[in-house]
Amino acid sequence: MKPELYKFPLHVILRPFDGFWDMKYEGKGKVRIAMMILALLVLSIILQRQFAGFLVNYNDPRLLNTLDDIQYTVLPFFLFCVANWSITTLMEGEGKFSEIVMATGYALLPIVLINLPLTVISRFMTMEETPFYYLLNGIAAIWFCFLLFVGIMTVHQYTPSRTIFTLFLTIIAMGSVVFLGSLAFSMATQIYYFFLNIYRELIIRM
Q: Which of 12, 26, 95, 187 is in Cβ range 3.0-4.6 Å of 19 for a Cys bridge?
């Protein structure tokens, strides 16, 4: 793989306006790189939840589940991409689904770059130094939100106000999908147990 593919994500997070423009119009972004960043994010979350210092880690090791960490990271990522693509398609957005995936994936890089070393550092922190841990986590989250905003605005060629509005609609769409999915799953479960009980009743009577 060309070294430029590894350098470009750093260019995006340091110069987001130029970086996302190059991603869309110069073809410098790659979906597989975005997926690699997503995979690194999952890894960083798993490591952080399991190995962060006890002063900042309140998770019970007996209750940790790697599969939960994966699904609660990967599913929201793709849910956001699908919801944003659906909303922006109706609002004359110019971004393709692959561009939304790339913009969202590349925007996650600051969280990865901060979380991985911070997990190691947290194991040597004193109580007085823990605010530094939360400060860096906050910086990573704000940096991600800013990059996501710039990325979505650039790939769709929206104004800032229109970008904020579409992101708001995207969140509503995500909530609606989760609600409808939960409702459908609940109904399917009830129907399954209804027929299962009928089957058991017939077996007993026979």
A: 12
Q: Which long-range contacts (CB under 8 A, 24 or more apart) does 56-60 make?
A: 56/122, 56/125, 56/130, 56/133, 56/134, 57/122
Q: Could you write out the three-class secondary structure of 41-77?
A: HHHHHHHHHHHCCCCCCCCCHHHCCHHHHHHHHHHHH
DSSP 8-class letter at 158 = -
C-beta atoms surrounding 37 within 10 Å = 21
Quote the tokens at residue 78: 């793709």
Q: What is the mean pLDDT of residues 139-153?
A: 96
Confidence grade of residue 35 (pLDDT, cut at 50, 70, 90): very high
Total Cβ atoms within 10 A of residue 106: 27
Nearest to 123 by CA among 187, 48, 52, 28: 52
Copy the structure tokens of residue 187.
């109904």
pLDDT of residue 58: 83
Residue with tokens 């989760």, as numbered in its chain = 178
One-letter identity of residue 170: T
Q: What pTM was computed for the model? A: 0.89
Q: Which has the closest alpha carbon to 101: 188, 24, 5?
A: 24
**Amino acid in position 199:** Y
